[in-house]
Amino acid sequence: MLHSTTTPAAKRRALRAGLASGRLLRFPGAFNPLSARLVQRKGFEGVYVSGAVLSADLGLPDVGLTTLSEVAGRSAEIARQTDLPVLVDADTGFGEPLNLARTVQVLEDAGVAALHVEDQVNPKRCGHLDGKTVVDDTTAVRRVRAATDARRDPDLVVVARTDVRGTVPGPGGLRRTVERSKMLVDAGADVLFPEAMADLTEFEAVCSAVDVPVLANMTEFGRSALFTHEQLRDAGVRLVIHPVSLLRLAMGAADRALDALAVEGTLTGQVPHMQTRAELYDLLDYPSYEEFDSGVHDAGLEDHRDS
Q1: In percent, how much of the chain has pLDDT > 70?
Q2: Catalytic annotation, pick one of 12, 16, 116, 165
Q3: Which of 29, 228, 238, 258 gets the most CB atoms within 10 Å of its CB?
Q4: Which position among 217, 238, 242, 248 bears the catalytic label?
Q5: Active-site residue flag, 291
Q6: Active site residue 116
Q7: Is residue 118 annotated as part of the catalytic site, yes or no?
Q8: Residue-range domain boundaries for the chain
Q9: pLDDT tens per residue across span 95-146
């Protein structure tokens, strides 16, 4: 009832144990707290909070317009509704290294288990669009060091994302990605997130080059093909995110339903595709609230009203 019964510290320890296990950890993106509960119910290992989803939810493009307070607020809402570890997109850290240090501590207070910081120039762009620019090596390393130095809980997982691959065409892009990846790991990154890999051989190359777990971003309509979990596991990947998938599915269903409503004047034909009232109440654990409420009302307060 109400919130997660697992502490943020326990979730962070669970994530570290999962990363050390060698298994592939699957983190679907939740677009709100309710969808995070569904991710947990379906047996996944974690929940992802996407910057692209948060900005889209606000009606904004993913071009660095969201603020730390907006990201921290949504992260806290999601983290307290699931027992799973939550990984959040911290973009470029919302400023210079000192700002990034504050970002880490604010997100730590929000209850997340992990966050990723990227090496794009601020304001950033979606990692699968053209026109990205990355910072120099020194700045990228300073960001990771600022993040790792700022955490108060040593179990908070810092993920370093590099967007170099999308800025250098041809074989040179992979070579430069590997070089940047090694620098970020040497700076203290717990997990390496190489964005916009072209194929499985590129994932294999990065996984072979670093001694920390590697994350794969399986976003639809992006530069990377949608590899299966088995393919990614065989390539050496240890964590996979599906950042915008649930939002895209939900918005696609809403779009089709509104078209039907406009044409037919009723949603009768859409009812079979809806989550039922019973399913929603079950996901919300509605009976436990009724039980708690009835227990409070039956506590004999009426007999003591005048005492």
Answers
A1: 93
A2: 116
A3: 29
A4: 217
A5: no
A6: yes
A7: yes
A8: 8-244, 251-297
A9: 999 999 999 999 999 999 999 999 999 766 665 666 679 999 999 999 999 9
CATH 3.40.718.10 fits 8-244, yes or no: no
Q: Is 306 among the residues known to form the active site?
A: no
Active site residue 126: yes
Q: What percent of the chain has pLDDT over 90?
A: 83
pLDDT value at residue 170? 77
pLDDT greater at residue 89 or residue 2: 89
pLDDT value at 169 more than 80: no
Examine the residue annotation and report whether 70 is marked as an active-site residue of this protein: no
Q: How confident is the model over 65-73, as a mean pLDDT?
A: 97
Q: Please give the structure tokens belonging to residue 195.
A: 């964005």
What per-residue confidence (pLDDT) applies to 304? 41
pLDDT of residue 157: 98
Q: For 113, how many CA atoms within 13 A lie in the half-sphere containing its CB?
A: 29
Rounded Cα gap, residues 274 and 21, in angstroms: 38
